[in-house]
DNA sequence: CGACGGTAGATTGTCTACAGTATGTGATCG
DNA sequence: CGATCACATACTGTAGACAATCTACCGTCG
């Protein structure tokens, strides 16, 4: 028992450096998602180690984690290569994403609290406002936050983790197409909130499915345009 | 170009030992799923290294992969502990499993070839026969093969990989309850085959959903009995 | 008698060194 | 001139060693 009850979050947690492999992992993931390291790039352990100022071991461990999560391919006795997704794989990822998001919407309809719904509405307002200002960065961030919130309201941590991984991969593959679906997307978000508020699992699933399929269509049409170059 | 066309599979692939971390990973996974290493067990790198006759490094790498896949918890500067799932987590895993299997059934209905359907029927026959003989091991293996085949026919590698991971975790958590749903389960498999043959995605989804939910109910009722001890 | 501080043991995190293997290049032979 | 073989190179795979950190126990003080 503590002698004094501390206010929640009062302790600054005093920034621990944390394991090196973690920081290396994050650094490499940033380099990959930002396309500084393009798909197919050969990643040499000693080079990365030198550039990051650490030994090879943390780099190895980070690379293996990246391999497990599908960011790099680890060919035996040859090294790590940034994964180059095929169109087929990208399509499969989108299918799975749709599936997971739709289920999250269903569970959110079943479990969401009214406080959670208010948070969704708040995010929606922010997103709509940013869309009006054509503030792309805020739109993208808020969109991610909205979907993340729906996932949180679903209350299924396993589902959330899978979805997070799949989402990040999808975003990576389609980042070259700087998509922007404007106001229509947020209108669909509003419909989703309505379905969740009504506790209508079927409708929530359907709305989310339609929504992510629209996003898919948007992605792929842009992808085709890019593909011509 | 090769001077002589070799018959497919004629080359024995001359058993490569493969990376040590891989073999260590498989060994540890076997020890965990077989409950030789019980949940909560503290895994000490140097001990495992000694017992397996290798250095600490391959053990470390295997442990980190196991951590990424949810088999062990890796507490910083303290070591690895076999993951101890909560009832809530197990339930969430079952939910996700149902979702993934149902989608696989839908895709299989959309994409299965008639050859694939015949393979499903063959597996079904084997399973039914084993069920009659009350050959539990064969029943379990064939059941896994059946679901794996459905997943293969779905033709979505991303989905298949996620499902494989989730399935293995589910089986691990519920292995203490040696379940056995007998003939009823195979009847449901037959219904699934019929739906796939008819290319009826809706029905295939529904049948698989019902099927896995039955399995869930079976699991949980046994789990409750166990829980009394 | 309870709480605090110090010390010892053990374990992880990281670095360096060595061995094994695949790749690319150049010389040699048909 | 083309193909093949041998060599050199570079990188990964593994092992061993050192430093940092956490846990547990014990003695001491209030």
Automatic annotation (TrEMBL), chains A, B:
Keyword Phosphoprotein in record: no
CDD domains membership: WHTH_GntR
InterPro entries: GntR_C (IPR011711), TF_FadR/GntR_C (IPR008920), Tscrpt_reg_HTH_GntR (IPR000524), WH-like_DNA-bd_sf (IPR036388), WH_DNA-bd_sf (IPR036390)
Transmembrane segments: none
Entries under SMART domains matching the protein: FCD (SM00895), HTH_GNTR (SM00345)
Assigned keywords, A-Z: DNA-binding, Transcription, Transcription regulation
Gene3D superfamilies recorded: GntR ligand-binding domain-like, Winged helix-like DNA-binding domain superfamily/Winged helix DNA-binding domain
Record region (Disordered): 210-229
HTH gntR-type domain ranges (all copies): 18-85
GO MF annotation terms: DNA binding; DNA-binding transcription factor activity
Protein name: GntR family transcriptional regulator
């Amino acid at each position: 028992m503590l002698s004094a009850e501390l206010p929640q979050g009062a302790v600054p947690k005093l920034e621990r450096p944390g394991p090196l492999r973690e920081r290396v992992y994050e650094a490499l993931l940033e380099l990959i998602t930002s396309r500084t390291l393009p798909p197919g790039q050969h990643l040499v352990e000693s080079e990365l180690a030198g550039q990051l100022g650490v030994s090879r071991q943390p780099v190895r461990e980070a690379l293996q984690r990246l391999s497990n999560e599908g960011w790099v391919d680890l060919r035996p006795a040859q090294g790590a290569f940034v994964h180059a997704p095929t169109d087929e794989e990208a399509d499969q990822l989108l299918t799975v994403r749709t599936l997971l998001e739709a289920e999250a919407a269903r569970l959110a309809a079943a479990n969401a609290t009214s406080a959670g719904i208010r948070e969704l509405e708040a995010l929606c307002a922010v997103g709509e406002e940013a869309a009006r200002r054509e503030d792309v960065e805020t739109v993208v961030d808020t969109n991610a936050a909205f979907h993340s919130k729906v996932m949180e309201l679903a209350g299924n941590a396993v589902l959330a983790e899978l979805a997070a991984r799949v989402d990040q991969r999808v975003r990576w593959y389609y980042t070259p197409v700087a998509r922007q679906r404007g106001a229509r997307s947020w209108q669909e978000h509003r419909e989703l909130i309505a379905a969740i508020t009504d506790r209508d699992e079927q409708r929530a699933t359907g709305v989310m499915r339609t929504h992510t399929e629209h996003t898919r269509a948007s992605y792929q049409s842009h992808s085709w345009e890019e593909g011509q170059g």
